[in-house]
Amino acid sequence: MTKPVALVFYENLLAGSQLVNRLQDVGYQVQLVSDLHKLVEQATDSKPMVFVINLASASAAGLEAIGELRSNAATKHIPVLALVKAGQKKLADQVRAAGAASVAIESAVTTRLPQLLDRVLEVE
């Protein structure tokens, strides 16, 4: 049985490595996104179950990549879980506006990742 794929991009190295480890712990095959400008192409090729993006700043490239993923017919179904630092309400609002299905505080990755994934993967 193949593992579901999770595409992951992170700006914060420590939180990013914890995220990758936790995703692998809960049964995902992790593919890192190194170039957000190629996100749609990578997502089309790898057919991920989810895209998780950890943003340490209001990265225009990160927000744009989420928007491109959501607006492309081949990738718009892929849910986006965005992780931000505590207290970054403005960034969280920007990420939601860009099309993220859910936004969470990055510190929740170590303790609540399965619940966060369940929430973002819910079909309405």
Beta fraction: 15-25%
Give me the CATH fold name.
Rossmann fold
How many separate helices?
Answer: 5
**What general outline do the C-alpha atoms trace?**
globular
Percentage of residues in helical conformation: 40-55%
Cα separation of the termini: 26 Å
Average pLDDT, all residues: 89
- Largest beta-sheet details: 5 strands, parallel
Q: Tell me the CATH architecture.
A: 3-Layer(aba) Sandwich
Overall number of structural domains: 1
Strand order within the widest beta sheet = 2-1-3-4-5
Would you count the extended β strands for me? Answer: 5
Spans of at least 5 consecutive residues with low confidence = none
Question: Secondary-structure element order, as H and E?
Answer: EHEHEHEHEH
Overall SS class? alpha/beta
CATH superfamily: Response regulator
Task: Please supply descriptive tags for the structure shown above.
124 residues, alpha/beta, Rossmann fold, 5-stranded parallel beta sheet, 5 helices, 5 strands, globular
Description:
By secondary structure, the protein is α/β, with parallel strands linked by helices. It has a single domain, classed as Rossmann fold (3-Layer(aba) Sandwich), CATH 3.40.50.2300. 45% of the residues lie in helices and 19% in strands. It has a 5-stranded parallel β-sheet with strand order 2-1-3-4-5, with helices on both faces. The protein starts with a strand and ends with a helix.
Helix-strand blueprint:
Blueprint: E1 5-10, H1 13-25, E2 29-32, H2 39-46, E3 50-54, H3 60-71, E4 80-84, H4 89-98, E5 102-105, H5 109-121
Parallel strand pairs: 1-2, 1-3, 3-4, 4-5
